[in-house]
């Protein structure tokens, strides 16, 4: 649920040991993904199947919906097979659109300075992660990079958080998760993640949209600015 009213974020840093951050829309500008799946891919799909771009877009959107909230949605090898297109190759053709959100490197350095465990936790396929981090030089900040593929479930699924806790041995109550997807935040909340932050501007090309339930930030500098450390 979205709102025009912003719930401000206040992180009790002394009570946080572990910081978990989503990638697409949270650390990276989601414009790349929106453009790829909604514009670039339908154009190529229309050529392969000799249909209009509009028809291709309608067909692909329906396929996307069927795979939503599952590992299949982010599995680019699945989509390469399904659509008879080389999805990694197509992504690399427009990799100049991959961009880090403002103030992300400063926030990651801030978390390191505080001595927090820092994990990138993404639904993205490992090959997608590699393509993104080849352009976005932020991988070295993290203690570990976790793809949902490794865990065996998408972040929207409760089993993901049980498995992730087994894998990383973190205390949910002393953990922070920042994500642009409210369904992920809800699932993490049910698992007991203590501090949840909603990213209100996942794409630089789309309007800010605040959560009606979770504290929202427009930019990570808000979490640095509100700290006294």
Average pLDDT rating? 95
Helix content: 40-55%
The CATH fourth-level homologous superfamily of the largest domain? HAD superfamily/HAD-like
Return the CATH topology of the largest domain: Rossmann fold
End-to-end separation in angstroms reads: 33 Å
CATH architecture of the largest domain: 3-Layer(aba) Sandwich
DSSP summary: helix tally = 11
Estimate the strand proportion. Answer: 5-15%
Pfam families: Hydrolase
InterPro entries: HAD-like_hydrolase_sf (IPR050155), HAD-like_sf (IPR036412), HAD-SF_hydro_IA (IPR006439), HAD_sf (IPR023214)
Organism: Candidatus Electronema aureum
Protein name: Hydrolase of the HAD superfamily
Write up what this structure looks like:
Helix content is 45%, strand content 13%. It has eleven helices and eight strands. The strands form two sheets. Strands 4-3-2-5-6-8 form a six-stranded parallel β-sheet, with helices on both faces. Strand 5 (175-179), helix 10 (182-191) and strand 6 (195-199) form a beta-alpha-beta unit. Helix 1 crosses helix 2 (53-67). The two termini are 33 Å apart. The mean pLDDT is 95.
């Amino acid at each position: 649920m979205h709102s025009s009213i912003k719930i401000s974020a206040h992180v009790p840093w002394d009570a946080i040991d572990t910081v978990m951050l989503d990638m697409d829309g949270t650390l990276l500008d989601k414009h790349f993904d929106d453009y790829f799946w909604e514009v670039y891919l339908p154009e190529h799909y229309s050529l392969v199947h000799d249909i209009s771009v509009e028809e291709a877009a309608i067909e692909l959107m329906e396929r996307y919906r069927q795979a939503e909230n599952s590992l299949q949605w982010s599995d680019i090898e699945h989509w390469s097979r399904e659509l008879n297109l080389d999805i990694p190759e197509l992504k690399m053709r427009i990799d100049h659109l991959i961009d880090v959100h403002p103030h992300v490197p400063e926030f990651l350095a801030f978390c390191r300075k505080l001595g927090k465990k820092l994990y990138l936790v993404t639904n993205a396929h490992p090959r997608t992660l590699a393509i993104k981090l080849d352009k976005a030089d932020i991988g070295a900040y993290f203690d570990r990079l976790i793809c949902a593929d490794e865990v065996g479930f998408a972040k929207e699924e409760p089993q993901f958080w049980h498995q992730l806790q087994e894998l990383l041995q973190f205390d949910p109550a002393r953990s922070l998760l920042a994500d642009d997807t409210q369904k992920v935040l809800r699932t993490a909340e049910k698992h007991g993640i203590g501090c949840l932050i909603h990213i209100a501007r996942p794409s630089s090309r789309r309007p800010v949209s605040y959560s009606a339930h979770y504290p929202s930030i427009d930019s990570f500098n808000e979490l640095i600015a509100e700290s006294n450390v």
